[in-house]
Amino acid sequence: MPDIIPITEPDDPRIAAFRDIRERDLVGRRGLFIAEGEVVLRALARAHARGTGHRARALLIAEQRVARLGDLIGAFPGDIPVYAAGQAVMDAIVGFPIHRGILALGERGAERSAGEALAALDGRPRALALALFGIANHDNMGGLFRNAAAFGADLVVLDSDCCDPLYRKALRVSVGGALLVPHTRLAPGEDPVALFEAHGLTPIALTPAGTIALADLAPPDRAALMLGAEGPGLAPALIARALGVSIPMSGGFDSLNVATTSGIALHHLTRRSSSP
After folding, report:
1. If exposure means fewest CB atoms within 10 Å of the residue's CB, which of 131, 140, 199, 249 is most exposed?
2. pLDDT tens-digit readout, 218-250
3. Domain 4-107 carries which CATH code?
4. How confident is the model at residue 183 (pLDDT cuts 50, 70, 90)?
5. Which long-range contacts (CB under 8 A, 24 or more apart) does 267-270 make?
């Protein structure tokens, strides 16, 4: 385990990047992010080991938790500084009572264009991309990435109106999934359906107006599942060029929470027949 560096003053310049976290959430961190909680830090250690591009720059841990987290701390490279502070000092650093007491400053991996990210799936007999449009709620974004990780999606494609999946709250809700599932962002005006088809992915639009019930859909080997924001949903122009699929409901309801919808649809699309 690396040496633990004690921090006794909240204005210590060595931990400046951890100071006033909520305010910095709003103004952005210029290529950096904050990971919070043991589960998310374990995902960050896995992402670091896998070479996904996301890496830790420093850890800040409440001193009473250090001994119990020896295996987690040891999972990070030894040259990453690990700071420890008493709970009162840590609360003063971050600007609010942080009960989890476990933080990492992370560095984002280099972003690939949508075309480059999709090209990485070329040649695979099976591939599944989750394409998101207008998802502005961080809780929903985190839930979507959690499901993408749970069901083995290969890539998440975001349009230019989606919020940041590495925003602290979205990352926490994703339980680290946003660090483990590769993602890319469409350029403004880029045609997602044309991109998916160019890379051999069947575009599937989840919509109440879909003519095929999800339960009746034979999962394509290579697919791009498209989901829109709650309320407006997907743009009609996208739906018209994709395979429209619905989840039938009762009681006059026509939609589910988008993260819930993604879990149902991803589960269906990753089913594989047991027959030869």
Report:
1. 249
2. 999 999 999 999 888 899 999 999 999 999 988
3. 3.30.1330.30
4. very high
5. 267/151, 268/214, 268/215, 268/217, 268/219, 269/128, 269/151, 269/204, 269/219, 269/220, 269/223, 269/225, 270/128, 270/151, 270/152, 270/219
